[in-house]
Write a structure and sequence with these properties.
Layout: H1 2-20, E1 25-32, E2 37-44, E3 57-62, H2 65-81, E4 89-93, H3 99-102, H4 114-134, E5 137-146, H5 148-152, H6 154-157, E6 166-170, H7 178-188, E7 193-202, H8 205-219, E8 226-237, H9 241-253, H10 262-267, H11 276-291, H12 299-312, H13 318-328, H14 334-345, H15 349-358, H16 370-384
Parallel strand pairs: 3-4, 3-5, 5-6, 6-7, 7-8
Antiparallel strand pairs: 1-2, 2-4
Length: 386
């Protein structure tokens, strides 16, 4: 039954890639001076991508793109459709005939050599600059690898200014010294970095053991700049593990981007000793700082903060929420409703009544209707005899 469910999920995800974003799939060949040959790319642009507008997108670079691309692209398309992660540009690098050469490292120091060193430079000096020139990219970039390529993506973290801000290492076939390099680097890194690591009970034994050892080192780190997540799955093999890890990795990396969940509401927002409005503003500032995305505050997130104010009876926060709502949705009833609630609960009924009444010409939004506003005004008028 479980295998059937996984198969159905895979079919759904492939449906999203082939149907939902069909017109946005691009196949390209890039000539590389570093490699001395050409390399095939698969590129998936977000739905509605328009080269003429100003919107820009994170980039997810998928090594082993010949088989891993569709799994990543399908999940990204699905999650971004529901606004749980940002729309992104997916770039798959075909390595079907060059995987061993591309990931070559020295037996002496575990660092890239020969064709591995050339591939390292190709990604950083040729591929990403090409993608940035050609498409509307944001600064936030993710690297995805599996097995040998999951080991390879770690080399970019060892640079002073890593070109990737997030790493998805699926069942990494780690070089002997990679774990030590990585732990030492992440211990003192000064910029924010997301690192996702995964193995499974049925992974290749040597890979699983090295991955578990790496997890022990990374779990012991005390650095707030490192946003680390580890999963050890029960059941998947080395080859089926990507289907399980990619959704978890995306959820982990883009957790703050997601709408306020019931868990976030219950465990964090309701227990705040400071302003929930400031929490909301900081959440979206973090999205901007991390991903470069100026995301409009969701109506449902406004409603979550409203609910917390009502439940905790901290009505003084309605004023700040109202001003924020007017900035975000200036032509709607949202801001006026919260400001009227503020006046209503802080013993200024006449101001509340007038605020409810003055919003009549504005657009309805999020269940706040003109009838509701007029009913509120009429109720105050009846209660106080205005």
């Amino acid at each position: 039954m479980r295998n059937l469910l996984i198969s159905l999920i895979t079919i759904v995800l492939l449906f999203f890639v082939t149907i939902g974003a069909k017109s946005q799939a691009i196949y390209e060949t890039i000539e590389s001076n570093k490699l001395g040959n050409s390399r095939q790319l698969k590129i998936l642009l977000p739905r509605g991508y328009d080269s003429d507008d100003k919107k820009r997108y994170p980039v997810i670079v998928v090594l082993d793109g010949d088989y891993l691309f569709e799994a990543v692209a399908g999940n990204v398309d699905y999650y971004s459709y529901w606004e749980d992660i940002p729309e992104s540009i997916i770039v798959g690098v075909n390595q079907v005939d060059s995987r061993y050469d591309d990931t070559m490292y020295s037996e002496q120091n575990s660092l890239p050599i020969e064709k591995g060193a050339s591939f390292f430079e190709f990604l950083g000096l040729e591929l990403l600059p090409y993608i940035d020139r050609t498409y509307k990219t944001e600064k936030f970039k993710v690297a995805v690898g599996h097995g040998e390529t999951a080991n390879f993506i770690n080399y970019y973290l060892l640079k002073d200014n890593p070109i990737f801000q997030a790493y998805i290492a699926i069942s990494p076939d780690l070089a002997p010294q990679t774990s030590d390099y990585l732990a030492e680097r992440l211990k003192g890194i000064q910029s924010k970095v997301f690192y996702y690591l995964a193995t499974s009970s049925n992974d290749v034994k040597s890979i699983r053991e090295k991955t578990e050892a790496l997890n022990s080192k990374l779990s012991a780190l005390d650095n707030k700049n490192v946003l680390y997540k580890y999963n050890n799955f029960e059941g998947p093999t080395h080859y089926t593990l990507p289907a399980h890890t990619i959704p978890k990795a995306l959820e982990s990396i883009f957790l703050v981007f997601q709408p306020i969940s019931k868990k976030e509401y219950d465990e964090t927002i309701l227990k705040l000793e400071t302003s929930p409005v400031e929490y909301l503003v900081e959440k979206y500032k973090t999205i901007k700082d991390l991903f470069g995305i100026d995301k409009e505050i969701l109506i449902n997130d406004f409603k979550a903060i409203e609910a917390a104010i009502e439940k905790n009876q901290k009505f003084e926060y309605f004023e700040a929420l109202g001003k924020l709502a007017r900035d975000q949705y200036p032509n709607t009833l949202l801001g006026h409703y919260y400001l009227a609630r503020f006046y209503e609960e802080t013993n200024e009924p006449k101001k509340a009544m007038k605020t409810y009444q003055s919003a009549y010409i504005l657009d309805e939004i999020g269940g706040i209707t003109k009838d509701l506003m007029l009913e509120k005004a009429a109720s105050i008028k009846a209660d106080f005899g205005y």
